[in-house]
Amino acid sequence: MGYKTPLFDEHRALGARIVPFGGWDMPLHYGSQVREHHRVRLDAGMFDVSHMRIIDLDGSGVPAFLGRLIANDPARLRVPGQALYSCMLNRQGGVIDDLILYFRAPTRYRLVVNAATAEKDLAWIRDQAVGMAIAIRPRPDLAMIAVQGPNARAKAVDLIPAALREQSLALKPFVAAEQGDWFISRTGYTGEDGLELICPAGQVLALWRGLKGAEVAPCGLGARDTLRLEAGLNLSGQDMDETVSPLESGLAWTVAWEPAERDFIGRSALEAQRERGGLRRCVGLLLTGRGVLRRQQAVLSDGKPVGEVTSGGFAPTLQRSIAFARIAPGSGEECRVLIHDKAVPARVVKPPFVRNGKPRIDL
Amino acid sequence: MTTNTPDDLKYTKEHEWVRDKGDGTVTVGITDHAQDELGDLVFVELPEVGRRVAAGEACALVESVKAASDIYSPLDGEVTEVNTVLGDAPETINDDPYGAGWLFKLRLSDASQPDGLLNATEYRSLVEEEG
């Protein structure tokens, strides 16, 4: 038995198949995850993401603390509501977790971290903050629904409190608006437009039912995974973890080297890696032969193993199998993947595979 | 959710169904329970027509969004036909596991064999036991 979000009974009532995920009992799908995937690409779907951990940071020491805590530069956030994607590294440069940081006011920030790593993240954050003027406040009193798809914002707007409606519709990508305990951001994990709605846990059932009434399709973790894979978005704990550098996880773009004097945790380890060179690459794969790419399958180049698949599956929008793989530098565009003892041809491509409903690679 | 288990079919412990045509040939597929457990099917690999298979031999593969699953021949025989529709539309198995979603047909080496399989009641108990 795992933790349950405030929507657990509602998922059961909707016929969801429930699976354990990161210590939580979560909906995998409500009948067909492929159909849910298409609903998000073509119209609007919603995900209960209340299992993700919201952590509020308040205090005069917060900006300097964040500059040390995360690999991206929090000083990039200047306007209230702005969001930043970043990795949180250990001293060896491994990825403890990825997160989204929101700037709310000069000494008030909000973090949203992954469910599976939440306890570890929180312990790490508290350890780093010892002796600093920072209040660290996890928010289990809040719940979160991600509404995603080309029609998501239009369908969700009436369910947002009146005072936030206009602002929410005007949000630019990666910006949030808030009032009281409602917090609306134009973010997501699907490669589609949409919003993530944070509200008091006691109001989330009414919000969910209201969205359902507006014909937003309930979607489970299964569709969430195929959507994020097509969108070229990493999954923490799978495509990167504590033993792997962001530089070998396709996340070099999230590491802010400037200003050079900002000494974030893991910086010296990443600098040493960069100096040494020979780093593995995280690439996209499109299977050109028959089968389905899966995590941990070996990637071969000229018959020799050069790496392995970190996330793989069938991509409903492309009707092909795709993957992320971590491979040795210098491998060519053509490769093979070992699937059930057969070396099946695949092509190295640059993610994202799909954005805003459209394929972004040649099939 | 309860799944469908037709009374007129035979079953295996590996969640395949067998339709005995009574003329020494059978049709084979996966059960409603199996497709429900697997989730959306996305890839199917079927045996070649003419291949001789032994009972218990892995001879086909179905892959869902979740996992790959070997299909074992329920009986000894020769593959006479495979469901080519599944190549482009593996989801047919989810939609109609006992009808349009059949996998392959066998001409049996010994026409009395289907009697050794599970009947519908026995298969339902198996599914319940597996929880």
How many strands in all of chain B?
9
CATH architecture of chain B: Beta Barrel
Helix-strand makeup class of chain A: alpha+beta
The proportion of residues in beta strands of chain B is 25-35%
Series of secondary-structure elements of chain A, N-terminal to C-terminal = HEEHEEHEEEHEEHHEEEHEHHEEEEEEEE
Q: What is the subunit organization of this protein?
A: heterodimer
Strand order of the largest sheet of chain A: 10-11-12-9-3-13
What is the CATH topology assignment of chain B?
A: OB fold (Dihydrolipoamide Acetyltransferase, E2P)
Instruction: Quote the average pLDDT of chain A.
Output: 97
Helix percentage of chain B: 10-25%
> Total helix count of chain A?
9
Alpha-carbon distance between the two ends of chain B: 12 Å
Number of strands of chain A: 21
What is the CATH-assigned architecture of the largest domain in chain A? Answer: 2-Layer Sandwich
Query: Helical amount among residues of chain A, as a percent range?
Result: 10-25%
Ends apart, CA distance between termini of chain A: 43 Å
Return the CATH topology of the largest domain in chain A. Answer: Gyrase A, domain 2
Mean pLDDT figure of chain B: 94
- Helix and strand run of chain B: EEEHEEEEEHHEH
Low-confidence runs of chain B: none
Count of structural domains of chain B: 1
General description of the model:
- The complex is a heterodimer of chains A (363) and B (131).
- Chain A is built from nine helices and 21 strands.
- Chain A is of the alpha+beta class and 363 residues long.
- Chain A has a six-stranded mixed β-sheet.
- The N and C termini of chain A lie far apart (43 Å).
- Chain B has 131 residues and is of the alpha+beta class.
- Chain B has one domain (16-120): RNA polymerase II/Efflux pump adaptor protein, barrel-sandwich hybrid domain (OB fold (Dihydrolipoamide Acetyltransferase, E2P), Beta Barrel), CATH 2.40.50.
- In chain B, a hairpin with a 4-residue loop joins strand 2 (16-20) and strand 3 (25-30).
- The radius of gyration of chain B is 14 Å and the shape is globular.
- In chain B, 40% of the residues are buried.
- The model of chain B has no long low-confidence stretch (mean pLDDT 94).
- The chains are: A alpha+beta (363), B alpha+beta (131).
